[in-house]
Fold this sequence. Notes:
The chain is of the alpha/beta class and 295 residues long. It folds into 2 domains: 2-115 and 155-205, Spore Coat Polysaccharide Biosynthesis Protein SpsA, Chain A (Alpha-Beta Complex), CATH 3.90.550; 212-294, no CATH class. 47% of the residues lie in helices and 14% in strands. The chain has 12 helices and 10 strands. A 7-stranded mixed sheet has the order 3-2-1-4-8-6-9, sandwiched between helices. A 3-stranded mixed sheet has the order 5-10-7, with helices on one face. The mean pLDDT is 95.
Amino acid sequence: MLSIVIPIFNQDVRTLVYTLVKQCNKLNINYQVLCFDDGSEQKYKEFNKELAFKINVNYTEMPENLGRSKIRNWLGKAAYYEYILFLDGDSTIKNKDFIKKYLDHLPTQAVLYGGRQYVPKKPRAKKKILHWKYGVKREALPAKKRNKDPYLNFQSNNFLIPELLFKENLFDEKVVGYGYEDLLYALDLKKKGIIIRHIENPVIHDGLEINTVFIKKTENAVSNLSKLYIDGKIKHSRLIKSYDRLKDYGLLKSFEWTYTKMEEKIKKNILSENPSISLFNMWKLHLFVEKMNVK
């Protein structure tokens, strides 16, 4: 029936797994939960080791860090039930009918994406406000809005896919580091005519990063996107659309001149207690322009 697969990197996934097990047992379905640790710190391995002794749960520690795409492929290949549900290890499930809601959409040959939410209150840690604010404004979208552009709005944190379909369509393992492997995956599905359907079944994203870490990951993501754009693998994204518009109207130099004048203000703002997502996006666009000029 259902294989639930969870890549782990420096996360305590016990509560997540026990919640999923409880829901599956209540529904009396055949299921497995696969948890592959991808090179976490020892303290997280100590937390999660107890999962290895639970019925229907397989906890495995990878000998080395495989990366975001490869670990998902390994998990998907190891799954053996008809459908695979991919969940990130930093997810929290509040909906008592989370599993049932996915099952209500079966059978299907489409990919189902349930969505992502963030806690409604600002984090107490002021250094995590940028990630929280960006997530609330750009990622925590209702299904109706996500379905307007189902491929662009796909993320790999919470999706269900038929097992045979996944094994014919793996993540591109050439994409390393953080960023855009999920958009590339979605666009590959689009090329093959595979439907992504967005439903209202979100998990709460608990893995908020401090500003400096979130900014570093964003830099890596923008670098990945520039390479994928140059290679012709990703031709459309919000960032690419902004870049192409500037380029088409001959405004790249004007944009960079304006950014240079504002750079100190922008960098100070995005590290502040009240960061502007518009300025953060301007900073991302500047990074992309820089990457394209280097190429």
